[in-house]
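Subgroup meeting minutes
Present: P.N., E.W., G.H.
Scribe: E.W.

1. P.N. recapped why we're keeping a running log of single-chain structure predictions: easier to compare across weeks, and new members can see raw inputs and outputs side by side.
2. G.H. added today's entry (162 aa).
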Amino acid sequence: MNEQHVVTEADLDQVVTWNVVRVARFLGQRLGERLAGQGLHPVHFGVLAQLDINGALSQADLARTVLLRPQSIAAMLDGLERRGLVARTGERVRGRRNPVAITEEGRRVLAGAWRTAEGSNDLTDAGLSPAEGSELNRLLLKVAGASRGRLTDESAWDWRQA
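Output recorded in log:
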């Protein structure tokens, strides 16, 4: 006889990876709402921060750095470029390396967004004390460190669907 297990909320709460997905969506939306006043999405923040940290990157390298599919980043960069936040250097030819760099205006916008992002580290409205928020970040960085180099383009987000 084949008995089917009935899943309960308590069962689902024991699935760590599902909880990470739920929390990532909640915190991503929360950060997005806070950055919206500056006309930014959390991925825009990540792009500007990575370009400021690393200097010019190819579109493909930048996409991988912020966990986007390389083929989905061009449209987003077009929008950031129209706003004067990033600049592409070199001729835009398919299949050719096309470095992207942050502009001075991009750095100015990033400075404001950085203050917003740092402010979002306060998770007391999500039920965590400052010490618990720091512990959560420490654990997330541990997992993020273990995942470096293990993510594939297929596991990255499609910006057009974000």
